[in-house]
Write a structure and sequence with these properties.
alpha+beta, 3 domains, five-stranded antiparallel β-sheet
Length: about 550
Amino acid sequence: MKPLATLKHLSSKNADYGVAEQYLTFEHDEFTGKPILDENGRLVPRQDYRISSLNCGEEDFAVACMRANLRYGKNQQREDVKSHHYILSFDPRDGPDHGLTMDKAQALGERFCAEQFPGHQALVCTHPDGHNHSGNIHVHIVINSLRIEEVPFLPYMDRPADTKAGCKHRCTDAALRYFKSEVMEMCHREGLYQIDLLNGSKNRVTDREYWAQKKGQAALDKQNAPMIAGGITPRQTKFETNKEKLRQTIRKALATAASFDEFSSLLLREGVTVKESRGRLSYLTPDRTKPITARKLGDDFDRAAVLAALERNALRPVNTAAKRDAIPADRTLSSIKGTSGRHAPKQGAPQAPAIGRMVDIEAKRAAGKGIGYEKWAKIHNLKQMAATHNFLTDNGLIDLDHLNETVHESHSRMYALRRQLRAVEDEIAAKKELQKTINDYRRTKPAVEAGRKLKGKKAEMHRQAYEADYIICEAAVRRLKEMLNGGKIPAAARLKGEIEALISEKNGIYNEYRRAKDEYDELANVKYNAQRLMEAGQAQKHKKRSHEQER
């Protein structure tokens, strides 16, 4: 499973705000969470990190938070949530592929914190790697739950207290969905890898399962170490949790079953009982007394996904025959592509890597490249020649005109998706502008309406006292008349839902666009290589003809 951009939320009731800063700046045991000490009993600083504070003035984060809590008389009880901890993790590939650095991630984290948590004292800290040691840069954002400044009404807020100083931050389901949509927006804006955070992932791995896997893997590695040192290959090298074993068992049954009865029978052979209640599936394993719901396993295991997979399996023989009869000898690339947009490999064959462009060795030699580079380039060109030839043969693109037509179709599809993407982005921007204008209007309307009830000097004094609200409200009214064309102001929940739906749609189009772009890039490389091969062949023929004429 590739760790793409994700957003995680934790809340803490610990009154010692210094513990959060200590965790961010010093090494901690990944299993116990306790600080690591050196031989002298001192804390071990983290080797590399970036850290900054917001809204703390000249004070430390812990001191500033405690002073604010005392000022407003908040966070004094043991059960009070003192702080919120958000973790924004980026895909490890964003570094080499998109130039993501710790400094850039820190800047993105600071911007995200300032935009989503205004008025809160905060720590923003970037680490170069996580517990998975995959090289994923991630940003920690720790905020004091208490708000020290009055802030504008943001889209995820649902009550007046959410904007006021002296009130506390609430991480509601709606707020978390909004934050996730903003993370997706940020990844798209910055050209980073992303997934649809709003609709979840295929597997739902809880913190408990994650750490169980980590601890189990560490114990297994320790157990296998003596055998590996003695030249013995261990029977098991990868630790799997019971939930992961269950996922694999279900997937194995889904790969072959063509009906729900067959699916149930295959699972029962493995000791797993599948139950359906109120339209939801759950799975009972021999080691448990309580079944595990499909929701806790992932999206692939709920009733809709299971029935869809069974239906596909039932139709598989018909589809295979239809495809065999439908593909002509002079098939185009579009007729042999799968739903993923990538080229379908031969049955049973491994997926070939993406085809790169051949190197112009003569030009590189003229540019000063040495013998070592030339040797590598010759091997590289041979590999690309073979890959290009296989691609052209497998996809029926031997004819150059056919290849050019296919490249043109792929290019047109890519740009059509790009136009579609921009149209959705424009619609999102318009909806967000409308949302902001409505929020401005609703925020300033009470002051204006209160002034209308006054007369004479009192009304004048009231307008002077709330001049900013009058100006914002009047501007918002004019803008709403233009944007709504005399229509009614939509409900906040409805508008928020429309924006979230558009963001999900945009994310789907974006992913499709990325696949189409990858496909076009590969085809463009194939076309370039084919032209190079043709030119090389023509040059060889010309050289041979000249040699024969000289003789």
